[in-house]
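Quick one, tokens below. Sequence please?
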């Protein structure tokens, strides 16, 4: 009879890297640059995080099932901010991120957030930026990291957009605190559109990726259809759809009718005053989707505890959908702990959240347990759990946040920030901060396996 494996022989493994990111890095490191024929610089970087296991999964099941109208357009609903112009910089990802967030806040709040601050603070010119120049690309995970760590959003009037401004690392007080970002699964075919339609209908504009080439654009009809396999290079928002849009209106007719209404960031002189139609049959549309759908008054919390200022870069696990992870923090003042946030990589993820005060040594599950909560997170993405009853911390008091997370269909439930050469090399970590475990009893530090890696858990507090 074979011997059973001991716990310590089961090592954590990183999730496979997104092949589109690998292709992008090979292209980038080759020294190539890509400029569209009309002179626009492309600006979407495929993320290293691979969420392909979500493809085709249906979201928003808590919303009443409905038959979608064949045509819907947020332009007619007062749910879109004015078209912006990214100019010659590859900053479409920042404009698409704020196109989604500003849409969510409308019509109650009309705001113009600063893409300039996002593009600059998340660049290698600034202390906590990515390995990218301010005028180079980004993605939905980079913008989520910027918002979740409280770098923004800030107002356009505080840091006006300048595509050639590359040296500013100015910090302003955020005007909102992001509470949730939903990563909508990639479509599983040209007609797998209910997730996007539901998101647009109930929340607002959706961030998505595409591959842009002038040869696939029909300027007469403001229509676009690409059927190749080159990795995506541009980010836009989806703001509506037309199921009956005639396939003959595209430069190269696709297999069937139907198109999304896209919102670009190339000014009102491009397309139909900045908008265009993109075929349901396009190779890349409806992938790398994000919905920035929850932002609250920044006065709700006073302080954030975090080690993952670059956000969710990779995932790890123990060859099982379930695992434990934790962060230890030290209270900076007398405070009430109000909420905790983390990332989720599956649909209907089951969690148990525990908080301990005065944990001992390198065991985050020690000391006094003050919280023990459980629940299910329906959609993948960035999630915040608000405590109904906050609890007090004294200045200098240690506390630990633990999560047991089960992500059905995904054996890498632990979200990590880590240093990836050419992408997130500025990630930093130290011993005694982050911990992971297969069973919640035997703990190890991710830094012992991967240099400069941290668990993605944040805690939010108010001063007393």
């Amino acid at each position: 009879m074979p011997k059973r494996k001991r716990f310590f022989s089961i090592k954590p493994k990183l999730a496979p890297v997104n092949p589109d990111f690998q292709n992008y890095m090979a292209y980038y490191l080759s020294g190539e640059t890509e400029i569209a024929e009309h002179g626009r610089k492309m600006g979407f970087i495929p993320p290293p995080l691979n969420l392909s296991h979500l493809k085709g999964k249906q979201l928003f099941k808590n919303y009443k099932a409905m038959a979608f109208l064949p045509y819907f357009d947020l332009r007619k609903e007062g749910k879109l901010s004015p078209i912006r112009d990214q100019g010659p910089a590859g900053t479409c990802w920042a404009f698409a991120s704020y196109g989604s967030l500003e849409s969510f806040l409308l019509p109650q709040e009309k705001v113009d957030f600063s893409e300039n601050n996002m593009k600059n603070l998340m660049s290698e010119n600034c202390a906590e930026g990515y390995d990218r120049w301010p005028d180079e690309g980004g993605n939905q995970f980079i913008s989520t990291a910027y918002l979740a760590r409280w770098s923004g959003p800030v107002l356009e009037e505080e840091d006006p957009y300048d595509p050639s401004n590359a040296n500013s690392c100015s910090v302003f007080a955020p005007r909102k605190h992001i509470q949730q970002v939903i990563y909508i699964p990639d479509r599983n075919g040209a007609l797998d559109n209910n997730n996007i339609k539901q998101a647009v209908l109930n929340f607002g504009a959706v961030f998505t990726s595409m591959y842009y080439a002038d040869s696939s654009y029909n300027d007469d009809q403001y229509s676009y259809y690409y059927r190749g396999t080159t990795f995506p290079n541009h980010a836009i928002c989806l703001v509506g759809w037309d199921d009956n849009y005639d396939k003959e209106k595209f430069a190269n007719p696709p297999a069937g009718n139907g198109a999304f209404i896209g919102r670009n960031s190339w000014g009102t002189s491009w397309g139909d005053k900045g908008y265009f139609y993109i075929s349901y049959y396009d190779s890349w549309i409806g992938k790398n989707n994000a919905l920035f759908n929850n932002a609250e008054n920044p006065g709700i919390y006073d302080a954030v505890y975090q080690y993952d200022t670059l956000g969710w870069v990779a995932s790890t696990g123990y060859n099982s959908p379930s695992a434990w992870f934790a962060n230890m923090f030290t209270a900076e003042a007398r405070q009430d702990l109000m909420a905790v946030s983390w990332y989720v990589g599956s649909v209907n993820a089951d969690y148990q959240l525990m908080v301990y005060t005065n944990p001992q040594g390198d065991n985050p599950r020690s000391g006094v347990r003050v919280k023990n909560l459980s629940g299910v997170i329906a959609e993948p993405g960035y999630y915040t759990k608000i405590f109904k009853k906050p609890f007090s911390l004294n200045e200098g008091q240690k506390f630990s946040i633990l999560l047991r997370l089960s992500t059905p269909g995904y054996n890498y439930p632990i979200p990590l920030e880590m240093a990836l050469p050419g992408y997130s090399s500025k990630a930093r970590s130290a011993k005694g901060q982050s911990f992971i475990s297969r069973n919640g009893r035997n703990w190890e530090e991710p830094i012992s396996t991967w240099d400069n890696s941290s668990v993605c858990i944040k805690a939010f507090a108010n001063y007393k």
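DSSP finds five helices and 23 strands in the chain. The first strand starts at residue 13 and ends at 14.
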